[in-house]
Design a protein that fits this description.
- It is a single chain.
- The chain is an alpha/beta fold.
- The strands form two sheets. It has a six-stranded mixed sheet, with helices on both faces. Strands 1, 2, 3, 5 and 6 form a five-stranded antiparallel sheet that branches.
- Helix 2 crosses helix 3.
- Helix 5 links the parallel strand 8 and strand 9.
- It contains eight helices and eleven strands.
- The two termini are 29 Å apart.
- The chain has two domains: 134 residues, Rossmann fold (3-Layer(aba) Sandwich), CATH 3.40.50; 75 residues, no CATH class.
Length: 237
């Protein structure tokens, strides 16, 4: 089996506090893999390190065969959507995406075409001229998702992508992720275990900075609701 993302003994300390502890994670190429766990389990920090946004204290990270352990630069073939928006509140939607496209070296006219298509893909085309500060939480989440897709990356890192979405955007996001098929590899963190069950084929359970179990979703759930399985696992840990 080929892995799009692989970490080896990945660790992160903030001062004397160990947030991520010797994480060995394998994300199969073309899969949708979820990191699940309680608040403070280390999910966001793990995603931030894999994204290249936070430098690890120890360990190795390999994405699409490239060792990125020694860099804090997001690679061209990785798209990232984190929980909190970092968009300029005064920019309009299309201008915002075009700005980030320019950071990836995409020419202005090509960026306009691609970003217009991305707004359409996430059902935001009618908000192309809406300023970021005027957007709802759900609209901002879809903007983050569209931004992650700029440049058609092979790997997507998504932190709580379904959090706070209304039913319309929730359904749209779910269908988009499922629609990638084997063309993209997705690693996401989510508290929404129903969402995980619907879109993910692999699940890794984190607890106190460690990966406690990693398994195919169907094998882990074994016909039960994933929430029940997760609660039972937490009791064992």
């Amino acid at each position: 089996m080929k892995y799009a993302i692989e970490t080896k003994n990945l660790a992160k300390k903030f001062g004397f506090r160990i947030v991520v502890d010797s994480v060995n994670l394998k994300v199969p190429e073309g899969s949708v893999t979820a990191l699940v766990g309680e608040n403070g389990a280390g999910k966001t920090t793990t995603l931030s390190m894999i994204s290249g946004l936070v430098r690890p204290t120890l360990g190795q990270m390999i994405i699409l065969g490239k060792d990125i352990s020694e860099t804090d630069v997001i690679r061209e073939d990785v798209g990232v959507a984190l929980q909190k928006s970092s968009f300029d509140p005064h920019r309009k939607a299309l201008d915002t995406l075009m700005f980030y496209a320019s950071l990836k070296g995409i020419k202005k006219e090509d960026a306009r075409v691609e970003c217009t298509e991305l707004l359409k893909k996430v059902d935001m085309e009618e908000h192309a001229e809406t300023r970021i500060k005027e957007m709802s939480h759900g609209m901002l989440k879809m903007m983050e998702f569209a931004n992650a897709l700029i440049g058609d990356p092979r790997v997507l890192i998504l932190d709580e992508p379904a959090s706070g979405l209304d039913p319309e955007y929730y359904h749209k996001l779910k269908e988009l992720i499922k629609g990638f098929g084997k063309n993209k590899t997705v690693l996401l963190a989510s508290h929404n275990l129903d969402f995980v069950s619907e879109v993910c084929d692999h699940v890794a359970v984190m607890h106190k900075g460690k990966i406690m179990i990693q398994e195919k979703e169907k094998k882990l759930a074994h016909g039960k609701a994933l929430e029940k399985v997760f609660v039972d696992l937490m009791k064992k840990f």
